[in-house]
Design a protein that fits this description.
- Helices cover 31% and strands 32% of the residues.
- The chain is α+β, with helices and mostly antiparallel strands.
- It has one domain.
- Strands 3-2-1-5-4 form a five-stranded antiparallel β-sheet, with helices on both faces.
């Protein structure tokens, strides 16, 4: 399976999933500091059934964002996320050289 990375393709995929009756959440990187695998504006769509398109970082951050996406689908309440890590622990959580990122997760209508 290929990974969808372009923002327009991610929105189109999210819209297709929603049109097919899936619940969908959309995560967007809003800010980064230092080293971050994905720049501000990067997006990831998540469905209640576990499908994902796009990328907001990598490593366990994407798993955490997917969990928040599922929670956001259930509650309808958008969430702001803030991830940061020291260089010593960077590889453990998927921020290759340390750094920080902030993101916004919302239910896709």
């Amino acid at each position: 399976m290929s990974i969808i990375r372009e923002a327009d393709d991610i929105i189109a995929q999210a819209a297709a999933w929603a049109a097919a009756g899936e619940q969908v959440a959309l995560a967007t990187v809003t800010e980064t500091w230092g080293s971050s695998p994905r720049p501000a504006g990067s997006q990831m769509a998540i469905t209640a059934s576990g499908r994902m398109a796009g990328s907001v970082s990598g490593g366990c951050i994407e798993g955490a964002v997917a969990d928040v996406g599922r929670q956001t689908m259930e509650t309808g309440v958008p969430q702001l996320l803030d991830f940061g890590i020291t260089k010593e622990r960077a590889w453990e959580v998927g921020l290759a050289c340390g750094g920080k990122l902030k993101g916004f997760v919302e239910k896709f209508a």
